[in-house]
Design a protein that fits this description.
The structure is a homodimer of 301-residue chains.
Chain A: H1 3-11, E1 27-29, E2 34-42, H2 53-69, E3 74-84, H3 87-103, E4 108-115, E5 121-129, E6 144-147, H4 153-161, H5 168-175, H6 181-187, E7 193-197, H7 201-212, E8 215-219, H8 227-233, H9 237-245, E9 251-256, E10 267-273, E11 277-282, E12 285-287
Parallel strand pairs in A: 3-4, 8-11
Antiparallel strand pairs in A: 2-5, 3-5, 6-9, 6-10, 7-9, 8-10, 11-12
Helix pairs in contact in A: 2-3, 2-6, 4-5
Domain PurM-like N-terminal (chains A, B): 24-128
Enzyme class (chains A, B): transferase
Organism (chains A, B): Sphingomonas pseudosanguinis
């Protein structure tokens, strides 16, 4: 696919008014204070070469919008930096991009296309507006730790996408994560701290505690596993540890005063106290920390 | 260099207040309407593997800020998407980044680091504020076409960087372009149309004419060559055509009413008329268009 064909296809997507029809080198965004986030996905690192290109597009959009969700933002639009490859891949990518933009009411603001030999490197930058913008460092001693949805589905889904056996629903949890934009919007004004679970529940909870200067304790039995995950991987301590250290969940992790009930469906999984570090327990007692709390190299900033 | 070391080094650079000390997944920019631009540089395409890493950092910043200059913006800050490589390269890159940020009064807002095998792929996204933000489509019939600085230095410099003979000053014009931020700030409120010359004077002038629905005629003899360029490559028609079709100049190209003198040093090189297409002439008469008007695959949008 040539650059001109690719840009013509982009022009048929929902465009941000400041994009000047993608006819200029820059765009203008006039939407008040903006939340900005950017993520790069690398073929062979953040997605598999055999992943469907449309799902890669979806994931690229979804992972960025998940960061906006954690700020309670409305989606203003996205910039795309894209390496032109073979036409079939490009077309399928564009289909997935179109789907994701429509699904999340996101508009294209601009971007850049390049030629590239070697693994595909895709960058998306997302802009959000009207955000309460809680930070991850605001948790207070005594706060409860909550998380939306179920944990570990994407981790099992990755194994399935790599050739393992298991239901499509889990594989799709890995390939097409759902950013919690609606939940984030409701939570952002009331939480003390919030972030998305991108690298694993344990590592991300530890990061929130560290940023807040607190200790955090997690009840592993409280972590909610989906029926499909329980059917495939069980729900014993090992299965729960695997779920809590797998990445790509894109659920929202947040701190609330102990007497406050969140305005959206979520599960209370721990609490913050004075001190430092992460502790784990279940009904059988304290659990030694696993050597690896999550995916350490993804989505740093 | 590990990701943690790299981010620690970034934290020692000038940080945007909305960057939260690079401790969060998102940043907040509250600076009124923003001009946004993004460019990706690929090793082997936009820079040479043997280019000094510090110069690659400089060029990454400068090419993006050149787009802000064309909008007359003040620099608000930048996002960096960086592939961690070998430590020596990363350190040298950081040194160049630090230099460029300080030189252009730019602050780091955030970004993402990844691991990558294959050619380096670097993305920078730049934000500008308080821009008059002229577009490239605003030229009017009768307007004069002007350009700042000299044309073709970077094209000769690329040949030197690839092993050719010539002065360092030209090679550095290729490796360390100077975005015309001050000139852009003065020009933006008075021009009818403006853009930077990134792909070549002829192709970029043709793009401005096309976007404005006009024809443009360029007097090749009026195009200013630097003394170093004239000394190395001469100044006959062939040398001037080579200069006018080489990329990476990062000068500002703009349209002004014929009776208006620009508020900064610049050279009048042509005029816009009703019609379409690009025409060239010099004192010897009309010049057939060369088969290639510039670098067609760089920095599309």
């Amino acid at each position: 696919m040539t650059e001109a064909e690719f840009i013509a296809a982009l022009r048929r997507m929902p465009l941000h008014p400041g994009a000047h029809g993608l006819m200029d080198d820059s765009a203008v965004i006039d939407a008040g204070p903006l939340v900005v986030t950017t993520d790069t996905l690398v073929e062979g690192v953040h997605f598999l070469p055999q992943d469907p290109p449309g799902d890669v597009a979806w994931k690229l959009v979804a992972t960025n919008l998940s960061d906006l969700a954690a700020k309670g933002a409305l989606v203003e639009g996205v910039l795309l930096n894209y390496p032109l490859g073979d036409s079939a891949w490009d077309h399928a990518f564009l289909d997935g991009l179109s789907l994701a933009l429509a699904r999340f009411d996101a508009r294209l603001i601009g971007g850049d296309t390049v030629s590239l030999r070697g693994p595909r490197v895709l960058t998306l930058t997302a802009f959000g507006r009207e955000a309460a913008a809680p930070v991850r460092s605001g948790a207070r001693a005594g706060d409860a730790l909550w998380v939306t949805g179920t944990i570990g589905d994407a981790g099992l889904g990755l194994a399935i996408a790599m050739g393992g056996t298991g239901p499509e629903a889990l594989r799709d949890a890995y390939r097409r994560p759902q950013p919690r934009l609606t939940e984030g919007r409701a939570l952002a004004p009331v939480v003390h701290a919030m972030m998305d679970v991108s690298d694993g529940l344990l590592i991300d909870a530890a990061r929130m505690a560290q940023a807040s200067g607190l200790a955090v304790t997690i009840d592993l039995d409280a972590v909610r596993l989906s029926p499909a995950a329980r059917a495939l991987g069980g729900e014993d301590r090992a299965a729960r540890l695997a779920a809590a250290t797998a990445g790509d969940d894109y659920e929202l992790l947040f701190a609330l005063p102990p007497d406050v009930t969140p305005p959206v469906a979520a599960t209370r999984v721990g609490r913050f106290d004075a001190g430092a570090g992460l502790s784990l327990f279940d009904t059988a007692g304290p659990i030694p920390l696993p050597p690896r709390l999550g995916f350490e190299h993804a989505a740093p900033r």
